[in-house]
Amino acid sequence: MTTATIVHTDQEIQTDVLAELRWDHSVQANEIGVAVKNGVVTLTGTVDTYVKKWRAEEAAHRVSGVVAVANDITVRTSAIGERTDSDIAAAAVYALKWNASVPSEKIQVTVDKGWVTLKGEVEWQYQRDEAERAVRPLWGAKGVINLIGVKPHASPTDLKKKIEDALVRSATVDANNITVEVQGSKAILKGKVRSWAEKQEAERTAWLAPGITSVDNQIKISFF
User: Fold this and answer.
1) 3-state SS string over the chain?
2) CATH assignment of 85-150?
3) What residues are paired with 143 via a beta bridge?
4) pLDDT tens digits, one per residue of 59-92
């Protein structure tokens, strides 16, 4: 039995993206323009915070049929509430220190014309993600460039074992049907599972290993 693939027209995708933007209350849909060509969504307009720009992009990615998003939204703060680069940098350092998931002493902050650049080296991917998440909402920030590297203290062999052990512990994943390879900081998952949710859980588990910077999920869904 084969499952028919649903093909969405550009007009349908545009309508759905606009509806998703209206659904997300953190985004003001009337500030954002949406164009679609061959499944690629281009977002335009002007917003007053980087968070709105980022949330609009996330909303577009959630829509079925979207193959890529070009985010051309401009962040422009009002002159009254505009902050200097020094103010934004100080706020970023403060935000990183107050996030318990982030080793703030290992991260350097640079701000240039409202753009926040993060550099440094951490052991876990979630620490890299949390650092960006911490500075994203800062008032006056026009964007975040995350150059933080992830470098594990464990060898690829140790990482492979950690991921395999984590899969065995998972109540929602049948580890017997999954194989794990680690190449440098990249985890490759292969095998068969019974559902999309199980495939996603296996990938989430691999991402939690210290030092993993990418996961190639080649697991296939099969009813065995």
Assistant:
1) CCCCCCCCCHHHHHHHHHHHHHHCCCCCHHHEEEEEECCEEEEEEEECCHHHHHHHHHHHHCCCCCCEEEECCEECCCCCCCCCHHHHHHHHHHHHHCCCCCCHHHEEEEEECCEEEEEEEECCHHHHHHHHHHHCCCCCCCEEEECCEECCCCCHHHHHHHHHHHHHHCCCCCHHHEEEEEECCEEEEEEEECCHHHHHHHHHHHHCCCCCCEEEECCEECCC
2) 3.30.1340.30
3) 115
4) 898 888 888 899 998 888 766 667 889 999 999 9
Q: What is the pLDDT of residue 1?
A: 44
Task: Please tell us whether the domain made up of 156-221 is placed in CATH 3.30.1340.30.
Answer: yes
Dump pLDDT digits (tens) for 155-164: 888 888 889 9
Residue 144 has a pLDDT of 92
Cβ-based neighbours of 59, under 8 Å, separated by 6 or more:
17, 20, 21, 23, 24, 27
